[in-house]
Specification:
Keywords: Glycosyltransferase, Transferase. With about 350 residues, the chain is an alpha/beta fold. It has two domains: about 150 residues, Glycogen Phosphorylase B (Rossmann fold); about 160 residues, 3-Layer(aba) Sandwich (Rossmann fold), CATH 3.40.50. It is about 35% helix and about 15% strand. It has 13 helices and 13 strands. The strands form two sheets. The protein has a seven-stranded mixed β-sheet with strand order 1-7-6-5-2-3-4. It has a six-stranded parallel β-sheet with strand order 10-9-8-11-12-13, sandwiched between helices.
Length: about 350
């Protein structure tokens, strides 16, 4: 098999020889290290789908850490290996690090201190990774991929398979409930929370956005989606709820319920959150609000249904920036439900 790379990656002698002799039917055990929270785990799903397509006979183990148990893709792997970050016993830690045995292929999709140690101690036939510090290529990997902040994370992960000549499906397949534009409810969902408070607009700003959108887009239901944390409630929106009949609250949903709910909605308005990544995974239209995170890493461009609101100078987008962007997106995707039609 040819190594489909020129100057965009790292190959040592072992990696090049392995690629030249690769027969997918001979790969029996694969380990994928991915230690990440909800959103990035969603972005991992297309890689696992395509990994299964490329190596249909392989047993796939996903390795993660105990703090990241939410949204694990159990449906896409054969086993899950968990490093317990609370393990105090040296013997216990060592046993966890050696529990993966000797896989044929190891992918490190994490680039953390723990993932690097696990990669170093796991005697796989070939190891692939994308470390931010290239010095780790020679130390740890046989095949290294350049990692970009300017392309959607889920697509970047697929570069590991493209180097083997694999042709991923587009639009990407997440194996999640799928949005159908023609049957979507006239429902705009807002998720005004983030893991880090500074990555989200203030509650006052969100009130202004939702109220203005409810006035300009009366033909849509405007729904605030509550989160799972105690502080991710709807109390700050009480006054807007009283004043507008088309504004409501969706209480917290389980992960199993959230996928179908999002897929049946018209659009999600949100900052850089795990919920937005779930919307991307269901192909639900999104309007992303960015001012801290690099938007391009979380902005798929292979579909016409995603937009990002951000200023080149990094200023926080204002209420009108967001509502104007939302109106433009809805008019493009749902012309029959446009502002003109709603006001007639």
């Amino acid at each position: 098999m040819k190594a489909w790379v020129e100057k965009g990656g790292y190959l040592n002698h072992t990696g090049r020889r392995w690629l030249s002799r690769l027969h997918v039917d001979n790969i029996k055990r694969i380990v994928v290290i991915r230690q990440c929270a909800f959103g990035d785990m969603m972005a991992t799903r297309p890689f696992l789908v395509e990994l299964r397509r490329f190596f249909p006979g392989a047993h796939i183990t996903l390795s993660t850490v105990s703090r990241y148990q939410y949204a694990l893709p159990h449906d896409l792997v054969d086993a899950v290996h968990v490093l317990d970050t609370e393990q105090r016993s040296l013997k216990g830690r060592w046993a966890q690090l050696k529990a993966l045995g000797e896989p044929d292929v190891l992918f490190d999709l994490a680039d953390t201190a723990r993932s690097r140690l696990l990669t170093l101690l796991t005697p796989a036939r070939v190891k692939l990774g994308f470390p931010y510090r290239r010095s780790f290529n020679r130390l740890l990997f046989d095949i290294g991929i350049l990692r970009s902040d300017f392309h959607y994370e889920a697509e970047v992960l697929l570069d590991f398979l493209k180097i083997m000549g694999h042709k991923p499906q587009y639009p990407l397949e997440f194996a999640m409930p799928r949005h159908r534009r023609e049957t979507a409810h006239p429902r705009i969902v807002y998720f005004p929370f983030a893991a880090m408070a500074e990555k989200s607009l203030s509650p006052e700003s969100w009130c202004g956005v939702i109220e203005q959108a409810a006035q300009r887009l009366p033909q849509f239901e405007h729904v605030l989606l509550e989160g799972h944390k105690d502080e991710e409630g709807s109390e700050f929106l009480d006054q807007v709820l009283v004043q507008h009949d088309n504004v409501s609250v969706q209480p917290r949903l389980s992960l199993d319920a959230l996928g179908p709910y999002m897929a049946a909605s018209s659009v999600l308005v949100s900052g850089d959150t795990g919920v937005r990544n779930l919307a991307l995974a269901t192909h639900t239209p999104t309007l992303g609000i960015f001012f801290m995170t690099v938007p391009f890493r979380y902005w798929p461009r292979y579909e016409d249904c995603h937009e990002a609101v951000f200023h080149r100078d990094g200023q926080v987008p204002g209420r009108m920036d967001i509502v104007d962007g939302l109106e433009a997106l809805l008019n493009r995707l749902y012309p029959a439900r446009g502002v003109t039609a709603g006001q007639a």
